[in-house]
Amino acid sequence: MKKIITFLSALMVVTAVYADAHVIRVNKERLQTITGFGAACCDGAMKPYGNDVSPVSLLYGPTSKVGLNIMRMEISPNFIENADGWGDYDWYGCVPSAKIVKQRGGIVFGTPWSPPGSYKTNGTAQGGNADSQGNQRGKLRTDCYAKFFPWLNSYLKYMKSQGIEVSAVSIQNEPDWWVDYSGCLYSPQEQLTLVKNYAHMLDRETYPGVRLISGEPLGFTHDYSDPLMNDPVARQHIDIVAGHLYGHAPLDYMKQSAQLALKYGKEVWMTEHSVSDGLKDRLPNWNDQLEFARELNECMLAGCTGYIYWYMRAHWAFVGTGETQYKTSNEVPNELPNTRNYLLPRAYIMSHFAKNVTGSTRVSTTTTFDSSPALKNGNGTTGAQLQATAYVKGDSIIVMVINSQNRSHSMTIRLPEKVKSGTHWLSTNNSKAGLYQQTDIPISASTKTIIRSVPAKSVNTFVFMVDHEETAVEDVEADDDLSSTYYDLQGRPLDNPQGLCVERFANGTARKVYIRK
Description:
23% of the residues lie in helices and 27% in strands. With 517 residues, it is α/β, with parallel strands linked by helices. A hairpin with a 2-residue loop joins strand 14 and strand 15.
């Protein structure tokens, strides 16, 4: 009796895989689970939207075109408006938007730019980095450490009175950045002392769903997160390690910060960044949008579980402002116009991740791409021109591919399970600057190998549906030393196996074989 282990058609597929220079192998190793994606509830000068709920209405919820589910709010110190324009950012400002986000199943969290000025060394909510402020470094006074978490509790109480359950509160926005606007400095040791000795005062009994976010340093430096993770008392109070990406790409400090956080079961959130700060003076072009896609993808590679952009509404963000100087021009072909309260290209790039990756678990990948040179992104660090990540969610396997090169590629995707159908989400500059197109992937018979064309300068999301009937019995490599039993495809034992059947080994593994007498 001779066993023919593999079908001729499968052999042909294997030949195709190794003939192609661009291969993505999706592995079964599970990594971080993705909580979601979002942005901050503020317009210029950090003013909250108030009764203007257009941005969140466009961006949030599973039925929206974008699918965001996390919203960041400022926890205002309520200082009085002065001649410099910094004023009373009362807590009501984000309430209307927060209500919509919560109604649509989303997460809202608050971040202090400063505790109340009366708690601080310089007597004001401002950071102190200005002649008019006396250049006094604003810090939380040590005798007010015991007041900090009760102050956060008062914020939670107010929001609950408005019908909003706040999901998390942060310790501080950019504790490492001395500013002339609302701000407060903490050294890593000062943050550790505050958390270790006083975080028990956060009222989790009254607000059982609230989680505590670490201080959010400017460059996501692990100097701030590692002390919290290395101290067993502080570690039990911190639920989310957070930071920003200014000056450092995701695979730098953020990746380092995520290592201990993920080890101890914490989440890792990137809570503020606006890619390419130079865009504040011009419209983004398609290369800028690809840079944003790479940043999202690299955050996932770094271990991120939540990504929160900066403004929702700005000509360089997700929702248009209507400013005439940022209308469409010949310099940016195929762009969507900067029309007030209409979605911009960046929103559709975000939708690839927000609508598909939210709630998924990232799995490891092994990639074989060509040796094309890397490129520089807005943070001045290297980013690969071909990138991929993969995820599993329910019955689907999701593969993201970003091609920043000027040429298309045939991409072979090798999956850990057989799939029966698929959808290709595609954004290119030819699709009106990022407006995604969805097409079905033709799959005539269940397979683990898919070959798809990836256009030049494109963002691609492949969503495959697993064929459970075909993958219930996993293929394994042949091992003639293992005793085995044969079954038909319905799981019934066979005394005289022949044709297509299932061979189960003594070690619990199995494979499909074709037995010819």
